[in-house]
Amino acid sequence: MSSPHSTDPVAPHHGNDASPRTAQPERGARASALCVRACAVSAGLSVLLLVAVVLTWSPLMSFDRAVVDALHGSAVEEPTFTHVNRVLTDWVWDPWTMRLLSAAAVVWLWLRGERLLAVWVGLASALGTGLQQGVKALVGRERPLWPDPVDSAHYAAFPSGHAMTAVVTCGLLLWLCRRHMARAAWMWCVAAAAVSVAGVGFTRLYLGVHWPSDVIGGWLLGVCVVTLAVASYRRVALSRGH
Which of the chain's termini has less CB crowding within 10 Å, N or C? Predict the structure, then answer.
């Protein structure tokens, strides 16, 4: 009697069941199509938000002002919590911390022999930084001004560099973790990434150095960069037979 875990070489094949060899490319094609759609949607929303910011659309400006006013009042009254937020934004979720994580991932991939993937992650991270700086220069939005600031920041406000860099880095690292980790471990990575992305957005607003639309813009552009990187890598890797 065969073991319940053994594979029967003469088991009947059902016509509707795809073999593992054909199912994997099909899953890859569906994932690539999903990334392309997500990239298109996030890019479209980013453009709409950018236009609204440039045109100082009144409902958006009112929303931005209401949120930062409420949070700044709390930041002034709660110096201990404000200090915690400054540590998080200046060290834990700082863009340079995120870029160092990306660089470490690139080195790890390179040493593993996954050279194409290493180059792709490095290029995607650089694209995120370049796009962020380019849009900042193009829009030139002023940051919130306070008579009693609790923190300071330089350069233009839109999009939030902290928010965008966190999405790009966490998104790329999640992609790598999904490729190399078991599902249970990957779910913990998803949770850590979600906390980081949401947390960095909150800290920038709480410290009064960004408008909500800056953070949302950073998130959207970050999603666009990550999904573009994943979709284009799949296409190039397939063409090279990887």
Answer: N
